[in-house]
């Protein structure tokens, strides 16, 4: 953990801090039956969908912020101290969590969603791993494939039901209702991407965050401005030159920036390669109210709309609905 973060954690044990971090649910309040801490914006949204009125959900990572460089705050420790269930996205997006749990002495059940996805969704995980062959890292962006979101929602349902047995029937109902929306969205996205000619289904993004999406819907990942699963990496001039050449050679129509990252590199590559800069994607985070990416379902629909418009050169539009 960074020195600054350790100092903040120590401070939390000595003095009360009034400023909060992340986001709390507006549903379950002080009388909630189960207290949940979710690390990422996507997990917070899924937990609120399943937990309904019975769950008070505290989300650590703020909206529209790059999670790869997040430094924990004292309020995160306080939230973990009272948590019945801790939802961990997995991979390097929330690797800070272990130190926080130790500092808080948290005893709530911790569910690693990436591990659940890889265990329960083996067939399409193996498909994704084949595309990523040669990488020693496990792609943490599991939610970009709605089938993985289904697995995550079921894992959340089971964790909440174990912590709050009286709410089991409600968690089953909310899960089934939400899964129906996810499945409708999945089919709608497939129809939208299916409108694109196969030769146009070539994806370039800020960093390698949409591999699961590409695998699910038949897109080819040509490259990324930051050639890494994490935005903490830095592209070299050689990387940029190689990407520009690839975009030209593959006749890629658009480069897609990410909502939480300054798009200046994408603009420079656009000028050099001739590809346009497409609409910003919700890659690592959800957005604030009114942004079009405020929920998990909204983010996948918004990304699809931007991708279809960008890769068709503005000739096609398609907005999938859950």
Protein architecture, described:
With 322 residues, the chain is an alpha/beta fold. It is 46% helix and 11% strand. It contains 12 helices and 9 strands. The strands form 3 sheets. The protein has a 5-stranded mixed beta sheet. The chain has a two-stranded parallel sheet with strand order 6-7. A two-stranded parallel sheet has the order 8-9. Helix 1 packs across helix 3 (74-81). The longest helix is centred in the middle third of the chain and has 27 residues, at 168-194. Mean pLDDT is 87; it is low at 1-21.
Give the helices and strands, then pairings.
Layout: H1 3-12, E1 23-24, E2 34-38, H2 41-51, E3 55-59, H3 74-81, E4 85-88, H4 97-104, E5 109-112, H5 113-120, H6 122-131, H7 146-163, H8 168-194, E6 202-207, H9 211-217, E7 220-226, H10 237-250, E8 254-255, H11 264-273, E9 276-277, H12 296-311
Parallel strand pairs: 2-3, 2-4, 4-5, 6-7, 8-9
Antiparallel strand pairs: 1-3
